[in-house]
Amino acid sequence: MKTPAKPEIEEGGDAMTRRRLLSWLSGFGLLGSLIITVLSNLIFIKPRATYGQPNRFSIGKPEDFPSGARLSLDARRVCIVRDGDKIAAISTTCTHLGCIVSVSETGFACPCHGSRYDQDGNVTGGPAPRALPWYQVSLAPNGDIEVDKDTEIEAGNYLRV
Amino acid sequence: MSSQTKTRNPLIALPENIWRSIFRNPLPSSDLGRASTSFTNFFLHLHPVKVHRNSLRATFTLGLGLMAFFLFMILVVTGILLMFYYVPSTTQAYDRMLDLRGTVAFGIFLRNMHRWSAHGMVAVVFLHMCRVFLTGSYKPPREFNWVLGVLLLLVTLFLSFTGYLLPWDQLAFWAITVGTSIASYAPIVGKEVKFLLLGDSTVGQEALLRFYVLHVAVLPAVLSLLVAIHFWRIRKDGGLSRPEEEDALPADVPAPTQVEVVQGPAVVMATSPAAAAAAQPVLEKRHYGIQGLVRGPFTKIGNVPDRSVFAWPNLFMAELVVFLITVAGVLLVSLFFNAPLEEPVNVMHPPNPAKAPWYFLGLQEQVSYSAFWGGVGIPTIEVLLLFLVPYLDRKIAGVGRWFARERLLANFLFLTFVIVNVVLIIIGTFFRGPNWEFVSPW
Amino acid sequence: MSTRVTLAVASFVVLIVHGIVFYDQFFNRWEKHQTAYFEQARSLAKTDAERRALDQRSPRIEQIIVTQFGESRVDRCTTCHVASDDPRFQNHAQPLRTHPYSAALGDVQVNGRWERRHKFTDFGCTICHDGQGRGLESFYAHGEDIFWPDPMLGYVTQASWHTEFRPKLTGKEYMQANCAQCHTEDNFAGTPLVQRGRQLFFEKACYGCHRIEGLSNGTLGPDLSDVGKKYKINYLWEHTVNPRAFQPTSFMPKFDLSDEEIKALTVFLKSRRGINFAETALGQYRARLQQVKAEGAKQETSAMPSAMRGEQLIGERSCTACHRLGEKDGHIAPDLSYEGLIRDEDWMMAHFREPKSKIPDSIMPVFGFADADFRSISAYLKTRSTPPPFKTAEEIYKGLCARCHGEKGDGKGVTYLYLDPAPRDLTKASFMNSKPEERFLQSLKNGVPGTSMPPWERVLTDEQRRTVLTYVFETFVKEPRGQLKERKVPDKNPVAFNVDSIHRGEEIFLNRCTGCHGRKADGKGPNSLDISPRPRNLRNSFFINNVPDKRLFDSILYGVQGTAMPSWIDYGLTQNDAGDLINFIRSLNSQTALPGGEKSPTLTSQANLSQTNQEVPCLNKGNDKCK
After folding, report:
1. Residue of C21, C61, C88 with shortest CB distance to A141
2. What is the CATH superfamily name and number for domain C499-612?
3. Helix H or strand E encompassing C110
4. What is the ipTM, given to two decimal places?
5. Cβ of C398 under 8 Å from any chain A Cβ?
6. Span B84-118, pLDDT tens digits
7. Are A153 and A85 in the same domain?
């Protein structure tokens, strides 16, 4: 940190190149650190574990859902549909502005802005822009049905049990 | 240059134009450029254009003041980041600490940085005070800046103390219990102060919330304001202190022009008969900006022999080095040592011994001898004396030199105060075991 | 130039540390475990759909949030133990191993497939296992960190625990403590150790001193209702083995316990967490009401006092957890085998109701039994009136004296820690040879009132007592008895017993005696802990009122050889001073009115109130408490 006795400009030749090299090195170190800092802060901000209910959860045994059942689990925001030996999970979050749709005879109806869906979640009326998504349903090794809200699947894809 | 850009396609010149609009100066190659760089940049204009060489001597300042400031910056940044995951609630705070250690990416590292920087800041601010005293830098005209410095030390301690509670572990809970109890020994107001701090008769949810608010909002704001004034005063008090002989003229520099600053309506005239006598081509009239109107010891125009150098790049480089050394130190410590996290709070089961944060262990040690004198009487006298030091010691001799012979008595008294306190802290930290009995740390 | 070098070096250090921290963040153990699980599950998968589902999964933090047991728990254990509920992994190594199925846990087999009784999604993991649910590194998650209060029960011990006991603190059976948080039934099959511990809690008379909500109401020791929440099992174990391990001043006796018994007690105590998941607050309240009622009923219906009932009660209420009675011996309190010859019924009843009323420093707790029960017990003890069969002096000493005075006569018999005043060290020749033989015979015959030394008058004949004393002198004192020095001490206190004298005595006492005998004269001065034998409690009325003036003069003026009591005549105390002191000490213990119509004086009004609960007049006119 000692200041040079003479102004730096007066040095020439080798000293100049050495100084330039050092400047580049410092600049590289600083810039690199800055980039890593920004990246790690972004990673830091993104939670790896949330405190709400997990997106992947077990809903019990297939026997718990008799054929023809359309059971809405409001806490999980998903409707379990059983048709014969086929099971599916349809989102009950309205694709319009996120209200919870209720199960009706004809399918689903949103109480907020009047969006209506058929039994497979396709839009039949109202402002909803998209059909209700279907979530992946799988059979866990212990025999429970697991719903994974992180994975959307094509409508009409049932799990056979 | 501007004529060039006009002829070019605005789209091609767009990046350069944007850059130029933000940074008005290219990398300076002349003195004018260096000066211009300093005062056209928001962050750099806080600095003078030129600084005295003495201010740049690493062995004189040790960079401690800047280090304290940079530690504060690190604390602000890491603190804000930690706030994203912290909840000041007795039921959740500790769990959030566990999550910082477990699930949050870089959580433990940020907490380490915050913790160690906080300890570091207390230590560095104290060392900075020692530096200022031992170089006699509090002497006129810098008396008030010393007072601000003492205030800053107190705010730093309080900031660190309020942060101590937030992890809500046994260490935090009992340290704050002990610390606030020390405060309650103050006569008349003691009990009330404790109650106001805790918001309750014991440390609990209210205390946690209050400490949180103090820690993340009130005290940082106060500290920032005080730091701003502290910095501003450095410039207004004529830069860092230095020995008088530093101002004496080196042999190869011509004698100074005696400048008389005459206050006028808008233009200040400066005449220099001495310079005229030396037949120097000195301007008869000089135009000064608004700074020229300022009276007192601060005006630096022309009345000081020119032993100063341009802030760019000398000062900025030095500051960058201090900054990087500080950051590197904090990062290294945080890489190798984890911030402590003890048992979750158990209000029924105090640890033995229950210790305050380390910087208060000297106090706690004193309290073990006499509650009032150790906890309130002596500390109050010490702080008052610190505040009054520049007003009691008026002799202007030995300023700007370490351990100046002229200041033997003052330095001796101050070092005694430092050593006694450090020894008390060491005893309290390492030599006190269960029931506050003397134990050997080995 | 050096500035620039420093700059370059520092910026590279910063860059490198940034790099290390950043890099490190992407290599978590749990990710490796999950990847391994996905691979192995893929090879075990039967259908393509299963495989596809596995391919889509990427490592992430799995967690179970349980809200139904008190505070909200977050258990992330399944992040590593990702196969815990996958029955195909029963033979894999941890952490990828199926949690065992067991009928004992209530799991049932339906169609050849196990069904868990305690579903992980409902219960989480830490409710049974303890450990730190939020941790993602095994060191923290399993509770190996010495600061974590609940390491995995029976699986993990912490580095700070006593090495001697650490191996004993492992084993699945410790988890019964957590089962008992919900399964509180007394006869629950899954928690035999908790039941054994509860049984021991009563067998070892712990209930006499300790309170546990819903179980006992002792007040002498700490409340143990939530002791399991406060302390780790190492503390519970060690404190039970040696009550002084953590608290040197504890007066809790060290009970004779086998390792198996200590384990049961530890598990039982660990199960006392102050909360009970199976019971609601209302349920607990109702249970308490019922318990109070039941206790009241029990007291009323107690049978007529009888010796037979007494014998039964002594067994039921665990007197022999401390005392000795025939074959049974708790090695803590005096032998009751010949109690019928030693004490009369009044003494016993007073002692039962309030043990300190007869032996002021007794550590025996107040058992709040019904009066009729006490009568039965004393009636039974009255029947213990067969003189002992011992013949030789040695037999008598070993049979009756050694329990307190020790086999070697050094005053360190099995019970010595719990007796206050402590048993006399019979090997201290300086003491033994400085007192007349009549005094020892007197103590043997009538006992020492206010202490645990009983009167042996009706147990041993004159001849036997004499031979025992001879035996003691020959075996323990060893040094020949010289001629006792004649000392000039008055037989009766020549100083008149009046307020002035007492006042002078108090002043001398406060100046000279409090360091050992204490400001309250209770023998608990600041130096008393370092002195053996301990300073005399001068408020022990039974003792003081039985000591003649002559002996007090002797002790004060010429000291007590073999103890810390100095010869005060060497420090300038006159006979009159001693007389004042004696008057003062007597006044502390006097039940009768003082001359001049005043009642007994005191050091400080507070001290006396705590001892006698009487209103006490003030002697010290300077004291601002005086009105």
Report:
1. C88
2. Cytochrome c-like domain (1.10.760.10)
3. strand C108-110
4. 0.81
5. no
6. 999 999 989 999 999 999 889 999 999 999 999 99
7. yes
